[in-house]
Amino acid sequence: MTGSPNARRRMSAVDRREQILDVTHEIVDADGFHAATPNRIAEAAGITRPVLYQLFGDLPGLFVALVDRESERASAQFARATAHQVDEDRLISTFCGMLDAVDEHPATWRLFLFPPQGAPPQLHRRLAESEELVLRFLQQEIEKAVPGIPDPEYTARMVHASGRELLQRRLVDPSRATTDRLIALVRHVRTWVLPAR
């Protein structure tokens, strides 16, 4: 049986580390960072607190490791989304790819789209870095799609805010914020905000 104490003892350090990060993420996703205490994490992971400290140093170290792992996952998914080709329009294709990413790893995206209570400074730094990266991408794509558009920087910010809101709706209310509905809306807004020239 995989959940037996013997099976837990045989887990490699790498696998144990991932398991603790998974457990921590589940707690944070459900109740916020403040709820992810060493005792709760250790109990949920079936380990002792010394094992947790051995692998992560301390609780802030564990939180940083979690943010780093989820940031890497989100960055890889964003890179895939920008390469996603379901439409000749790269902005729409990217949005479709981001919807796929949110559906594939909703807990990852809840972490970044709805930062939980007690989030470490590392998370907010990563969010700021990611936002700048996305805004640069959007501005470049907008300038390519509509050469000479007035104020491409703020247009990118408006597109970013709208896209973020729609991805949040997908996470909060997927039965109403269906993929078809959101993509149809993005297509409509795309022609309204960024008309072909």
TrEMBL record:
<dbReference type="Pfam" id="PF00440">
    <property type="entry name" value="TetR_N"/>
</dbReference>
<keyword id="KW-0804">Transcription</keyword>
<dbReference type="InterPro" id="IPR050109">
    <property type="entry name" value="HTH-type_TetR-like_transc_reg"/>
</dbReference>
<keyword id="KW-0805">Transcription regulation</keyword>
<keyword id="KW-0238">DNA-binding</keyword>
<dbReference type="InterPro" id="IPR001647">
    <property type="entry name" value="HTH_TetR"/>
</dbReference>
<feature type="DNA-binding region" description="H-T-H motif">
    <location>
        <begin position="37"/>
        <end position="56"/>
    </location>
</feature>
<dbReference type="InterPro" id="IPR009057">
    <property type="entry name" value="Homeodomain-like_sf"/>
</dbReference>
<protein>
    <submittedName>
        <fullName>TetR/AcrR family transcriptional regulator</fullName>
    </submittedName>
</protein>
<feature type="domain" description="HTH tetR-type">
    <location>
        <begin position="14"/>
        <end position="74"/>
    </location>
</feature>
<dbReference type="InterPro" id="IPR036271">
    <property type="entry name" value="Tet_transcr_reg_TetR-rel_C_sf"/>
</dbReference>
